[in-house]
Design goal:
Elements: H1 2-28, E1 41-49, E2 57-63, E3 68-74, E4 77-82, E5 88-93, E6 100-108, E7 113-119, E8 124-131, E9 134-142, H2 147-151, E10 156-162, E11 167-172, E12 178-182, E13 191-194, E14 207-210, E15 217-221, E16 226-230, E17 236-241, E18 255-260, E19 265-270, E20 274-280
Antiparallel strand pairs: 1-20, 2-3, 3-4, 4-5, 6-7, 7-8, 8-9, 10-11, 11-12, 12-13, 14-15, 15-16, 16-17, 18-19, 19-20
Length: about 280
């Protein structure tokens, strides 16, 4: 009886926290300034299980040259090319890397695809080059202050190349959440810690995406079941709720990766292997 009562109280508490979190986001938004009309995006596809991937799908980035997506699998470590319909095209094992949690495209040409991935447990960013169907591991960049958080699965979780600044934005999941930016053109002192207090209204940070043609960017939260848009000064502009408040299950159960494309389409990945597509309804 005590266990049943505890379960009921816990469920009520979780719903109340979700309500308060959503209210905080609602009070902060300035949707008229949204670069993409984030709150007006609607789901047009998903949840769709990615055939051939059973678990541990994480991170997501868009390759406009090839009109495809890239994602990573953290165990076993792999880079995967994915069609825009969520179909696996090719897999690239990465046995020398560990615990992959995010991926971003830096540049793409006919000769070379330059990507960066996060290794959470090792608390570092690693560059990859794909040429002639072969993966070459490039430079490693150690991130600040991973410590025990990284070993407890609360380390670097998402990253995105930001064309507006020429840097990579990196988010640490929680305990505490942290925001970094990396300049890969430099070999020393190339990673700095940045402040983003307004994003603390999210319980955790699980993914990040640039918005093409804008200085705004997107921040994803698994625990808050929300995606928020921030401007270049880290002010909250708009939000997309990924759950029905009070529902027993979120619409996106464990959001792990997000990318917004220049075609105006938003793609989401949720563990273990779920694929979603959002776009404007008008």
């Amino acid at each position: 009886m005590r266990q049943s009562l505890f379960a009921v109280l816990l469920a009520v508490s979780m719903v109340a926290c979700s309500d308060r979190g959503a209210e905080s986001i609602d009070q902060s938004v300035d949707a008229d300034r949204s670069a993409i009309g984030l709150s007006s995006l609607v789901k047009i596809s998903g949840p769709q299980a990615i055939i051939g991937i059973s678990d541990n799908a994480s991170g997501l980035t868009y390759d406009p040259l090839r009109a495809q997506l890239w994602l990573v699998i953290n165990d076993p470590p792999e880079l995967v090319s994915l069609s825009l319909e969520g179909v696996v095209l090719k897999r690239y094992p990465l046995p020398l890397l560990e615990d992959l949690e995010g991926v971003t495209l830096i540049s793409s040409t006919a000769q070379d695809t330059h990507l960066a991935v996060l290794e959470e447990r090792r608390n570092r960013l690693t560059e990859l080059h794909l040429s002639d169907g072969q993966i070459r591991i490039g430079a490693h960049h150690k991130l600040p202050d991973g410590g025990m958080s990284a070993r407890l699965n609360r380390g670097p979780e998402g990253l995105a190349w930001m064309p507006s600044t020429g840097r990579i934005r990196i988010v640490k999941e929680k305990s505490p959440t942290m925001l970094f930016s990396a300049d890969l053109s430099r070999t020393e002192d190339n990673i700095r810690v940045e402040s983003c207090e307004s994003a603390d209204l999210l319980s955790d940070w699980s993914g990040v995406s640039a918005i093409p043609g804008s200085e705004h960017w997107l921040l994803l939260s698994d625990e808050s079941s929300a995606l928020i848009e921030l401007d270049q000064d880290c002010r909250v502009i708009d939000r997309l709720q990924l759950s029905d408040l009070g529902a027993s299950e979120p619409l996106v159960p464990q959001a792990e990766g997000v990318v917004f494309t220049e075609t105006g389409v938003l793609y989401l990945i949720s563990e273990p292997n779920l694929f979603y597509v959002y776009q404007r309804s008008d």
